């Protein structure tokens, strides 16, 4: 019974009962229609799922109706973009090149350092049999003007008996002049000129004896005295280095 009739206390008439019956029938019909639509939709979805399982495919279609898609850029503006990017890379490469060049140039020797790399010596005041000491690259250098007797003695030495075999001609381009670095090859001491058992050089640190050709003859030193690069630019001018 409809609630309106119950609250009013009135007895429903036949017309009222007919109207209520028709309303109930319409509601039942609407529920049946909704059930049919849901059943039809479920059946369709089940069929699509079954078909997808039986024949899988990589061709998947997505619904992009609710998504914004960026449009591709204007092709006429790409050339300008490429030009800007290429120009920037060229500027960067040039800056990097300048940086590397500055670094390499900073490592090169300066003019004053190059001047110290070579040393000119006036040999006109050096007497026969005399040894003078000059400083070259922070090291002492012995310049000895040998006598004919010293030259003859050193040339006659048996090279096979030497610890560091070298002929006198290999160490002295001009037999009259011998140029050696004044640093003992043992531990770096400075030997004494015109001393030792062979009247060459004697190292007082550990007793190494060198002859008048700068060759090790006795003591712990393993090698001969070093002969630096030198040349005569004039008859009385020598350049070391």
UniProtKB/TrEMBL annotation:
Keywords assigned by UniProt, alphabetized: 2Fe-2S, Disulfide bond, Electron transport, Iron, Iron-sulfur, Membrane, Metal-binding, Mitochondrion, Respiratory chain, Transmembrane, Transmembrane helix, Transport
Q: Quote the CDD domains the UniProt record gives.
A: Rieske_cytochrome_bc1
Among PROSITE patterns, the record links this protein to: RIESKE (PS51296)
Q: InterPro entries, alphabetically?
A: Rieske_2Fe-2S, Rieske_2Fe-2S_sf, Rieske_Fe-S_prot, Rieske_Fe-S_prot_C, Rieske_TM, Ubiquinol_cyt_c_Rdtase_Fe-S-su
An example of a GO molecular function for this protein is: metal ion binding
Pfam families annotated for this entry?
A: Rieske, UCR_TM
- Provide the E.C. number(s) assigned to this enzyme: 7.1.1.8
The UniProt entry, under SUPFAM superfamilies, shows: ISP domain, ISP transmembrane anchor
The cellular location(s) given in this protein's UniProt record come to: Mitochondrion inner membrane
Q: Which reaction does it catalyse?
A: a quinol + 2 Fe(III)-[cytochrome c](out) = a quinone + 2 Fe(II)-[cytochrome c](out) + 2 H(+)(out)
Q: What is this protein called?
A: Cytochrome b-c1 complex subunit Rieske, mitochondrial
Which species is this record about?
Answer: Micromonas pusilla (strain CCMP1545) (Picoplanktonic green alga)
